[in-house]
Amino acid sequence: MNKLLERALEAHGGLERWKQFSIIETDVISSGELLKRKVEQTRGALRTSANMQEQACFMIPVEASDKRLSFRADRVAIETLDGKLVIERLDPRSAFAGHDLDTPWDPLHRGYFGGYAMWSYLTSPFSLTVEGAQVWDIEPLEENGEIWRGIRVVLPSRFATHSRAQEFYFGEDMLVRRQDYTLDVAEGVNIANYALDIIDVNGFKLPSKRRAYLCNKKYDVLRDRLIISLDMSNFRVIA
To answer: I want to staple 195 with a disulfide (CB 3.0 to 4.6 A). Which of 11, 50, 207, 224 is the partner?
Structure first.
């Protein structure tokens, strides 16, 4: 295993301990330029339940609802709370062909994007150890007077994610600070996603906020282009 990733795993709570749990949950409130362009805005939080050992999750409005969103890499669906199908889309990635930042999304587009994004944010860096992932060190990044060490990760094609190749940067404490990728479902624009306000959840270190900004071709951050804002609370992990 890559030594830098190994140190990051230990700092975030340990891979072997991670394997002892099955579900991680949080309530998330999302906003930002991308969602304003794409979908009608909804109020209130979504309770996200992510599978810690495979790529799957459910999302349910915290306020009363009789439906949930079910996500896997090859399928996104809206179901009743007892699992009865309302509508589904197989091979959901193909539905983004030709999309740019202004292409409207339907509920299944939104559900697929939210499903894979939240799964990634809740499970990394542990999910970077999946079979077939390629990991190597890259040049460190200097930001806010700190030096952040980095790795480049290429995930297997079976995973749904922003882009197969991503870069993760870690502070001196080896906790994640920033995640860079191209947003392939929206014209492949460059994004820098900051992991903020890291908290302890049953021994695991997790960001409680995410702020993702548009970047230029050199990955210089455009601070006036906040693409996604996520505020997360009420975390818990379930064995």
So the answer is: 207
